Amino acid sequence: MSTAFQIALADQSAARMASLLQTLNELLRAVDSRVVLLRPLTASFDSQSDDLDLLLTESQRQQLICAAKAACHQGQIHCRIRQTVAAKAELTLWTIDCSQRLMIDLWTSFDQLPHQQRKSISATRLLNTLSPLTLHSETNPAHEAADPRVPALRQLPPDIDLCLLLQHVSKKNKSLSVRAVRERITAACGRLAVWSPDPATVSVPHDMLAGLRELARELDKAIIITRNNIALTERYLVLRLAAASGNRGLRILEPRRSRRLLTDLRKAIMKRLPCLAVIGSDGAGKSSLVKALAKQQPTVQPVVAKKFYRRSLSYQIITGLFKRLGGLDRGVFDDRCASIVTLRAIPAAWIKLLLRLNPFSRNSKPVPPSPSMAERARIPGVMILDRSVSSFLIADRKSDTPTLTCGATWIESLIPPVTSLLMMMPWDELTRHKQELSACGHEQYQRLLFEQAQRQSPMDIMLLARTESAEAAAKVIAKIFEADPRSVREPETRSHTKRFKKAAA
Question: Are residues 228 and 309 in the same domain?
Answer without folding.
Answer: no
